[in-house]
Amino acid sequence: MNTQGLLFDLDGVLYVENRLIPGALDVMQRVVKRGIPFRYITNTSTRSLATLQRQLQDKGLPVPAGSVFSAISAAVQWLGDNGIRRICPVLDADAQQDFARFEIDEQQPQALVLGDIGERWNYELLNRLFGYLIEGARLVAVHRNRYWQTERGLQADLGLFVAGLEYAAGVEAVVVGKPAQGFFRSACRGLGLAPDQVILIGDDIESDIGGAQQAGLTGLLVHTGKYRQDLVSRSGIRPDMEIETVAELPGALPELFA
């Protein structure tokens, strides 16, 4: 392999909720010390970029300038590239800070931007969003993950609501985060590398590994976070590489870490 850069998924790979995976800090310190091009990538849609960077620093992880690429960043980029000016954001207040350049329109928005809002989902909200969609608004999903890992186990994720709105309104969502190929390729461009020069380290067999492989990257699956062997078997996706935890990464990639 001609590996020159790395993309690290966050939750489930480097930490689970607020608990660092053993060995993760040492690996990231070695990555920075050796000058290996890398990005932290995440589908997290509840936090602004500034908040996400601060929280990574609070965990003790090294966060060089420009090292975080999030699905929120990708959503802002997509809206701007497609001439969208008026949006209805279905996002936590902190994440909405990154959309300050857009007009909030809850009458005739050009696009709905869907992120994680936890227990605030309800029938009234879904029906209002359905109304916007049948009037022609675009459905922009920060991601459409099926589930996520918490300290209590796997929990249903945003994809549940994205799929329901697509079905009801007869539309197809624009997904800007993982597993969209454009997300991974944008992250690679930020490194100045071609996709076949980059390895994605992730715990989600579909959004991480499958999406990365479709975009031309090498997919390395860790057995932490969302990883479940039965889910991997059912997916039909075969990782290019597998390790137990991110702590084993230097041994798996000696050409980068030697």
The CATH topology of the largest domain, please?
A: Rossmann fold
Q: pLDDT below 50 for ≥5 consecutive residues: which ranges?
A: none
Give Rg in angstroms: 18 Å
Instruction: Characterize the overall form.
Output: globular
By DSSP (H or I, 4+ residues per run), the number of helices equals 11
- Describe the main β-sheet briefly: 6 strands, parallel
* Fraction of helical residues: 25-40%
CATH superfamily of the largest domain: HAD superfamily/HAD-like
Specify the CATH architecture of the largest domain.
3-Layer(aba) Sandwich
Q: Record the strand order, biggest sheet.
A: 5-4-1-13-14-15
End-to-end Cα distance, whole Å, is: 15 Å
Structural class, by secondary structure, is alpha/beta
How are the elements arranged and paired?
Elements: E1 5-9, E2 15-16, E3 19-20, H1 24-34, E4 38-42, H2 49-58, E5 68-70, H3 71-81, E6 86-90, H4 93-96, E7 103-104, E8 111-114, H5 123-134, E9 138-141, E10 147-150, E11 153-156, H6 159-169, E12 174-175, H7 181-191, E13 198-202, H8 205-214, E14 218-222, H9 229-235, E15 241-243, H10 249-252, H11 254-257
